[in-house]
Specification:
Blueprint lengths: L1 H24 L3 E4 L2 E4 L4 E4 L3 E5 L11 E14 L3 E10 L5 H18 L1
Antiparallel strand pairs: 1-2, 2-3, 4-5, 5-6
């Protein structure tokens, strides 16, 4: 009796995660002069709040992506496969193409250098 409830719960959980990933990856990330936004209008990070971008080999980042460190923490958010935000860290990547993630990380880095 218990295994059937366990499998049913696991199946429902898997469907929920699949639906959440499907809806999150239908959006895109937009880099503007004042910050990084999701195509649904969500502010991912304002440029004034970004401290630095980490793309290193040992950075705790999503696959094919990069990490943004903020000056001030923001609320938690999770869009599976696209981006997540926990406190002062934002991870961009997952299902995003590696080349596009690299270009965006370099562009944000250049914007931060020009800000100084």
């Amino acid at each position: 009796m218990l295994p059937s409830f366990l499998f049913a719960g696991l199946g429902l959980f898997s469907l929920l995660i699949a639906w959440k990933m499907h809806t999150a990856t239908s959006n895109s990330l937009i880099l503007r002069e004042d910050g990084l936004y999701s195509s649904d209008g969500t502010v991912v990070a304002r440029l004034a709040n970004i401290a630095r971008v980490e793309r290193g080999l040992f950075a705790f980042k999503p696959s094919n992506g990069f990490l943004i460190l903020l000056n001030n923490p923001m609320s938690r958010a999770w869009h599976p496969g696209l981006w997540w935000r926990f406190g002062r860290r934002i991870g961009i990547g997952g299902v995003t193409p590696q080349a596009e993630g690299k270009v965006m990380a370099e562009r944000i880095h250049m914007m931060l250098q020009n800000r100084i």
